[in-house]
Design a protein that fits this description.
alpha+beta; Beta-Lactamase; six-stranded antiparallel β-sheet; 26 helices
Length: 883
């Protein structure tokens, strides 16, 4: 009996010791170096064996920790289908009740089936008995449960509950220790990540790289399926500037996608409050609103990016499962966002500086290029090429205002279109007119209407022009023109592009205005110089053609026209005659004379006004010149009447082969040239008339002188023909001695009048057949003085006095009337003295016969150096020998 009792006591002791040994083994297991997951799995298996259960489940949660929840199941026999269901016990209402109350729950099969929180698992056999023990942290908070079911032989006992409770406490402690270790490790890892991220963010000055770096490091500390960075643009718009997405269920976004803040409630709340937002389940959140379709219920976390008290954007992360993100996740994203805010501000400052440097560089490039450009035509391509390059424009133009007409005229095109230069802005060009009047930039996404007002109706390719920007070209005082640029596609012009173009337009306005003023001043100076050149040609030329040629040459240069001509009008024959022309393709004008008629040139004469024809018609040319006009391919025509002293002198015609739109100064200069041409023609006619009058007067003078000479010959029969002979020989001698043609006229007149003084000598002395007495000779020697007195008052004969007054002077000074000697005697008188003696000795006289030529030659030679100039004698005698 004692042995039986003793045996029973041993068995009971062994039953008590066996669970204790297993608990000790569980303690050693939980204190081992195995991972928490392995520990939980092994403990779950040990629980089933220790209490005789058919299945066991352990569920661990880690609040405020990056460690994900852990659920482990064990079955006495493999049940793959059942395992999947049992793993869902973590979310079952009965287990949730244990966690919520943080109390042990032990139920028999009957109690289990009637419990209100029980939801039987499908396709599973009945599991008698059900026991669950909460896992509790040291702070008393629930961290999961340890649950068993399917007790072999009946319901679970209090002893089973005590064993399970003890294991739960040990497992809770091990899990808490693991959480603390991992939290510390994770904190160190996060701190290091944040430190490295801070370095990476602050060392990068490219905004795109900064945002990509943010998403990289964000993924290391906060698990996400999708993340995005949205930055504010303007007052009410945010734009996606960086994006990562790994889940198809995440909200559908795209790079560059924009949101209106006030149209998206969650963004409006975040921007208004400047506080982070954590949404465990977007489907049930009261203010969540999908801005784009896509996605199911998920966790969403958004953190505002602040800079100097202003919300500049937000960083958002998503997870495709609900209730995923924790406050710890929120804190980590905020920490990284705070570092990113500084990096974004630095990147934006750097970008602003870089853009400003780019702007300055562009302006410096333009300014450098402008140094070599003085004229407007040289500046316009520089501005248009640079502006087109900034925005990628395929067409651009600059219209400048004409000061005289206040009209906007096309002065430059990109690419070059010479045929479009000079176009006037359409009067109904509303957009361009609005920009010019208000000075405000106009941007049109569809620029067709703008260009339809700027280009001819027949111009092709308008459908290829899309987004267009129109900018005013302004000076400090006014707007002087417009610049239009068209893109080949529809898109918005960026803030940087608009700022660059604005700066370029301001530079263009000032530069072009200065260039226009310089050109106008230079043009006026050139035109004044041209008028002076023409004046000089008129005043220094005695013929008509020379000044007209100079005038036409200056006209084509200064007015930049292709051709011009001058027609003279003959009022007597009522005909027009082309006397000068420049720039025609034909060598000379066909039929230069034609009658006054109904053509445009005749209209200028008849109406006495300028005629302007912007488009020449063939019928407007005189019939004789119609073929010429057609051959020359002229487009534009101007004609100005040439009027001098109220008389029509002709017409100045100007031709051009492309359309002309002259300003008021151009017209004024054309009319000034017409006035110069009229003066040139009038001067030529006056000079021609004067020449005719002078010729007639000179002929009358010469006839009078010849008459006086014949009268002297008739008075003295002995000297008949003497004046003509000595005049002819004296002219020969003068030419041989090299006298100028201008002097020969006076020599001739002096020779004819050499004895004009004898008209004062009485006939008794002049015609006396015999020798003169001394008294008579003295009277005879008075005739040179009489000649001087007679001819000196006559201005045109004053230069002819040398022969009548001095032809009786002698080389040795013994002559009369003044006793001149050597070269004191005028050369004309020295020549005539030799000729006079030669002719006198070679002619018969009442008191003697003529000498032989040889005797006369010897006599004259003998008087060389005394009576005559020896050089004159030699030349004269040589002429006689040659003859």
């Amino acid at each position: 009996m004692d042995r039986d009792v003793m045996t029973l006591d041993v068995q009971e002791e062994l039953l008590v010791l066996a669970p204790l040994q297993k608990l000790a083994a569980a303690t050693r297991l939980l204190n081992s170096t195995l991972s928490l997951e392995e520990k939980v799995q092994r403990v779950t298996e040990m629980v089933g064996a220790m209490v005789g259960a058919q299945q066991a489940v352990t569920h661990l949660t880690f609040s405020s920790s990056p460690i994900p929840p852990l659920t482990t199941a064990w079955f006495s026999e493999p049940r793959e289908a059942a395992e999947a269901h049992l793993r869902r016990l973590a979310d079952a209402p009965l287990c949730a009740l244990v966690c919520q109350k943080n109390e042990v729950l032990r139920l028999t099969q009957a109690e289990l089936e009637v419990h209100p929180a029980w939801q039987p698992l499908e396709r599973l056999p009945g599991l008698p008995g059900w026991l669950a023990v909460p896992l509790t942290r040291q702070d008393g908070q629930n961290s999961g449960f340890l649950q068993v079911s399917g007790k072999e032989g009946g319901a679970f006992t209090p002893q089973d509950e005590a064993i399970l409770y003890q294991l739960a406490q040990m497992l809770s402690l091990a899990a808490e220790n693991t959480r603390l270790v991992r939290s510390e490790q994770n904190a160190r890892q996060v701190a290091e990540t944040l430190r490295v991220a801070s370095l990476a963010l602050t060392q990068n000055l490219d905004l795109g790289d900064v945002l990509e770096t943010l998403l990289d490091y964000l993924g290391w500390i906060v698990p996400y399926d999708a993340a995005s960075v949205l930055l504010r643009e303007g007052s009410s718009m945010v734009v996606v500037r960086a994006l990562r997405s790994y889940e198809e269920n995440a909200t559908a976004l795209s790079q560059g996608h924009s949101f209106q803040v006030d149209a998206t409630p969650i963004l409006e709340e975040l921007f208004a409050n400047q506080r982070s937002v954590l949404i465990p389940n977007t489907q049930v959140h009261p203010v969540w609103s999908h801005s784009v379709e896509g996605g199911k219920g998920h966790s969403w976390l958004g953190v505002p990016l602040l800079s100097e008290g202003e919300t500049i954007g937000l960083c958002a992360v998503e997870k495709g499962e609900t209730n995923f993100f924790t406050e710890e996740h929120l804190r980590l994203v905020e920490a990284l966002a705070a570092q990113t805010e500084v990096a974004i501000r630095n990147a934006r400052l750097f970008e602003a500086l870089r853009l400003r440097a780019t702007e300055l560089e562009a302006l410096v490039e333009v300014s450098t290029a402008l140094r070599a450009a003085r004229a407007v035509e040289e500046m316009l391509p520089i501005f248009l090429q640079k502006a087109a390059a900034i925005v990628g424009a395929t067409l651009g133009t600059i219209y400048l205002q004409e000061p005289e007409t206040n009209q906007l005229v096309a002065r430059g095109w990109y690419p070059p279109h010479p045929e479009l230069l000079g176009l006037h802005q359409h009067p109904n060009a509303h957009v361009a007119e609005q920009v010019f009047q208000t000075g405000e930039i106009a941007i049109c996404r569809d620029g067709l209407d703008v260009w339809a007002d700027l280009l001819p109706a027949r111009q092709s390719g308008l459908e290829m022009l899309h987004s267009t920007i129109s900018l005013p070209l302004r000076t400090l005082e006014s707007i002087v023109g417009l610049m239009h640029l068209a893109l080949p596609q529809e898109r918005e012009f960026t803030e940087v592009e608009v700022r660059l173009l604005t700066g370029l337009a301001e530079m263009a306005g000032n530069s072009l205005h200065r260039a226009v003023l310089y050109e106008q001043t230079e043009q006026r100076l050139h035109r004044l110089a041209a008028l002076r050149t023409i004046d000089r040609a008129i005043t220094t030329s005695l013929d008509l053609l020379t000044p007209l040629e100079v005038l036409l040459d200056q006209l084509r240069i200064q007015l930049r026209v292709d051709a011009a001509d001058i027609l003279l009008f003959d009022p007597n024959s009522n005909q027009m005659e082309c006397v000068a022309w420049h720039g025609f393709r034909t060598e000379r004008l066909a039929e230069p004379r034609f009658p006054l008629g109904d053509d445009v040139g005749s209209r200028a004469i008849i109406e006495r006004r300028l005629i302007a024809i912007p488009q020449i018609q063939l019928g407007q040319a005189p019939p004789s010149r119609a073929a010429l006009w057609l051959t020359e391919d002229f487009t534009t025509y101007f004609s100005v009447p040439l009027i001098a002293m109220g008389q029509i002198r002709g017409v100045l015609e100007v031709f051009h082969r492309t359309p002309l739109h002259p300003d008021a100064e151009w017209i004024d200069f054309l009319e000034a040239l017409a006035g110069q041409a009229a003066i040139a023609i009038d001067n030529a006619l006056l000079f021609e008339n004067l020449q005719r009058s002078n010729l007639e007067l000179s002929q009358a003078y010469d006839a009078t002188i010849a008459g006086w000479a014949r009268a002297l010959d008739l008075r003295d029969e002995g000297t008949r023909g003497h004046s003509d002979r000595v005049t002819e020989m004296t002219m020969q001698l003068a030419r041989a001695l090299g006298l100028k043609e201008a002097d020969l006229l006076h020599v001739r007149r002096g020779a004819l009048l050499h004895d004009i003084g004898k008209m004062g000598i009485p006939d008794g002395i002049l015609l006396k057949p015999g020798p003169l007495t001394q008294e008579e000779r003295e009277i005879m020697e008075l005739h040179p003085g009489y000649a001087y007195e007679m001819l000196l008052p006559i201005a045109f004969l004053r230069l002819a006095l040398d022969i009548p007054y001095c032809h009786h002077e002698k080389w040795d000074g013994t002559g009369y009337p003044r006793g001149l000697k050597g070269e004191e005697i005028p050369l004309a008188a020295r020549m005539f003295a030799v000729v006079d003696v030669w002719d006198a000795l070679r002619s018969d006289r009442p008191y003697r016969k003529a000498w032989l030529e040889e005797r006369v030659r010897d006599h004259i030679r003998s008087l060389a150096g005394t009576h005559f100039d020896g050089r004159v004698v030699d030349v004269f005698l040589k002429i006689q020998v040659d003859e």
